[in-house]
Design brief:
This protein is α+β, with helices and mostly antiparallel strands and about 350 residues long. It is built from eleven helices and 13 strands. Helix 2 crosses helix 11 and helix 3 packs parallel to helix 4. The longest helix has 17 residues.
Length: about 350
């Protein structure tokens, strides 16, 4: 097949001191893009690289007659609905692509809208409130400690250890900072005190659920809040660190695993997620499973030393990186009824 790989490039290594690095937390490093491209070529496909910048639409328009499929890992470059940008372009040009439709992409990036949909369908998620101005009255059902997040960001972007707040004064300060600096609402969410998992899924009908990954907060420094903050995801957990913050497969009993799988499948169905995704979940102190985040375009760093959650789960399930990509491409082709020799 002829496959276009579309992406956004990260130009700076993760750092707490580099503003550009924090801003580009969702993007992929050049080594990741090269690794994915090489793996797709290894499967026997021809690859066209398309950066998801302002020229992307014209590039796709020129390539339309030359490509069979787009493998989309792009995050988009601006706005609160940016993950819908590339899918919307491809819909206009009638080019098949891996992943969910524009509406799902936009909703899943919007944490508050995602949580509203989950609650409507009786899928548990932590109590929350969306702050658009920072002057809104704090809801009575929100109990400290709370977590303050940007409403429309991924990859733990702008979720730091100090995003964990214990009083309203600190809460207001964090909320105003997000609204001012990121020009978007701030999501305030109750901190859940239980275990945290992330579960990867491939397919549409049927869906394959890969082995669960658990975030191992017990290895964090004593002064760290047990949560998947920017510092934990990008600074502490790196190839040179002795701290390994993820475990796969997670050690959980069958009853809990069955319930997690049920919630993940229902979440995928409700949000109309296609082909692949990764769902983050956390237990409260009573053991109730809550959906934290929905990653409809999960990260797939090829280097196993990087602890990428989706590729790790795939490896534990018995897939090589190439086989994982082949499975994602295959289920997408089946959905579009593209008849090709897929390995």
């Amino acid at each position: 097949m002829k496959i276009a790989l579309t992406f956004n490039i990260r130009h700076a290594k993760p750092s707490l001191k580099n503003r550009q690095a924090i801003e580009e937390a969702e993007f992929d490093e050049p080594s990741t893009i090269r690794g994915i491209s090489k793996a797709i070529k290894k499967l026997g496909h021809k690859v066209f690289l398309v950066e998801a910048n302002k020229n992307a639409y014209l590039k796709f328009k020129k390539l339309r007659a030359k490509i069979d499929l787009v493998f989309n890992i792009a995050e988009g470059i601006s706005g609160q609905d940016r993950e819908a940008q590339i899918p919307a372009m491809l819909e206009m040009l009638k080019i098949p692509y891996v992943g969910s439709k524009p509406l799902t992409q936009a909703i899943c990036l919007n944490k508050a809208k995602t949580k509203e949909m989950l609650l409507f369908h009786n899928i548990p998620t932590a109590n929350f409130q969306l702050f658009k101005t920072g002057r809104e009255k704090l809801k009575d059902n929100l109990k400290f400690p709370l977590i303050v997040k940007p409403n429309c960001e991924g990859s733990s972007k702008q979720i730091f250890q100090n995003s964990f707040v214990k009083n309203e004064k600190t809460l207001r300060k964090k909320v105003r900072k997000i609204i001012r600096n990121l020009e978007q609402p701030a999501l305030v969410e109750e901190f859940l005190g239980g275990r945290e998992f992330t579960v990867s899924l491939i397919g549409n009908n049927p869906v394959e659920i890969l082995p669960p990954v658990e975030l191992n907060f017990s290895v964090l420094p004593k002064d760290f809040i047990p949560m998947d903050s920017y510092e934990v995801k990008w600074i502490l957990d790196n190839p040179k660190s002795k701290i390994k913050t993820i475990i796969c497969p997670a050690k959980i009993n069958e009853k809990l695993w069955q319930r997690i799988k049920e919630i993940c499948l229902k979440t995928k169905e409700v949000l109309e997620i296609l082909d692949w995704c990764r769902i983050d979940l956390r237990l409260d102190k009573k053991g109730v499973i809550n959906v934290l985040e929905v990653n409809q375009t999960p990260g797939i760093i090829p280097d196993p030393k990087e602890n990428g959650r989706f590729p790790l789960a795939a490896r534990v399930a018995g897939y090589t990186f190439e086989e994982m990509l082949a499975k994602i491409i295959k289920v997408t082709c089946e959905r579009y009824k593209i008849k090709r020799n897929i390995k």
